[in-house]
Amino acid sequence: HARVASSLGNHLKANNFEAWLLEEAMDVLIDGANRLLDELSGGSYSLRVRKSQFEVVDHRNARLTRTTRTRSGGETFLVALSLALTMAEQLAELTGMSSRLESVFLDEGFGSLDQESLDVVASVLDELAGRGRTVGIVTHVRELAERMPVRFEVTKGPETSSIVRIGE
Q: From CA 16, how far away is CA 9, in angstroms rounded?
């Protein structure tokens, strides 16, 4: 009991308590993101934090670990989406919201993705839609937009813009 009391006393010091709280929140975020990332990547990737930096473990490549900055566009998209969806769910829980976040909009640099990465993005969005989640994207990449079952095309005119719904 003395060790527990001593440890608790150290954690409750102002500077230690904040660091401990952030570490606990990060652990919960990583756990949730890893569950989703495992599903979305077919078990290919997982996340961890080392020295306050996110790292991605590539289970298809002998568990090679790299920072998120060295990932391909499709891999980066999977990691960012997993973290964003998990963080949204955790914020809903913390605020006492009884419903879960079912819609997210992403405005990412899809134009910089190669064909394989675009395929990953489209298949993940399809998978999430099949689970009752809506993930909207803002993109100028026609090939990606055309793969979406429902889309709104915005066309800029000389004085105003117009919006047309295409699909279901």
A: 10
